[in-house]
Amino acid sequence: MGTAHPPEPVKLVFGLLGSSPELLDQAVERLRLTFGPLEERSEPLPFTHTRYYARELGDRPWRQFVTQVELVDPGDLATIKIRTNELELGWATGGRRPINIDPGYVSLSKLVLASTKNHWHRIYIGQGIYAEATLPFREGAFQPQEWTYPDYRTPESLAFFTAVRERYRRQLRALPEAAAAPGQGRTGTRP
């Protein structure tokens, strides 16, 4: 029989889709005020993978990823998703939101995203929120799955997440021994 242990903290990531680069800047500032200091921002890129968001975000939405400095408990993901949904509503007019904020996290083994939508590959984590392992990290790289969104598969996105994982790995190594999850000491054996 295994013994339950607290998980290691993870690196919080926000996927932003907005109607303009200026709105992405506003969202980044609200995320900073809500969740604390942010660390890294990807370059805003045109989102051309689907027209799914056109009704709310217009014909030329923009994609950007942002990470938080402080590590978080992965068990907080549902609460974080509820809070980002509330932030989105702050911009909504006429039932349309010009910004979409999807939180998730990077751990050593995967990128996880939160969603309000249930599908076969998602697991319920509470408060009406589901989570999916969007990008497992195997054989030295993030590996897209059949359900991985196209904009999370691009070379730019994969390079960004790989760099985030490396910063996260260094952060974990810098944590005091007492912060390590039981059985996962801070030795050189970490991937």
Q: Would you write up a description of this structure?
A:
The chain is an alpha+beta fold and 191 residues long. The chain has one domain. The chain contains four helices and nine strands. The chain has helices at residues 21-35, 54-57, 77-89, 155-174, and strands spanning 10-18, 38-41, 45-46, 62-72, 99-106, 110-115, 123-126, 129-138, 141-142. Strands 1, 2, 3, 4, 5, 6, 7, 8 and 9 form a nine-stranded antiparallel sheet that branches. The chain starts with 9 loop residues before the first strand and ends in a 17-residue tail after the last helix.
Dominant shape: globular
Overall average residue pLDDT: 89
Which ranges are low-confidence, i.e. pLDDT below 50, for 5 or more consecutive residues?
A: 182-191
Q: Which class best fits the helix and strand makeup?
A: alpha+beta
Topology (SSEs and partners):
Elements: E1 10-18, H1 21-35, E2 38-41, E3 45-46, H2 54-57, E4 62-72, H3 77-89, E5 99-106, E6 110-115, E7 123-126, E8 129-138, E9 141-142, H4 155-174
Antiparallel strand pairs: 1-4, 1-5, 2-4, 3-4, 5-6, 6-8, 7-8, 8-9
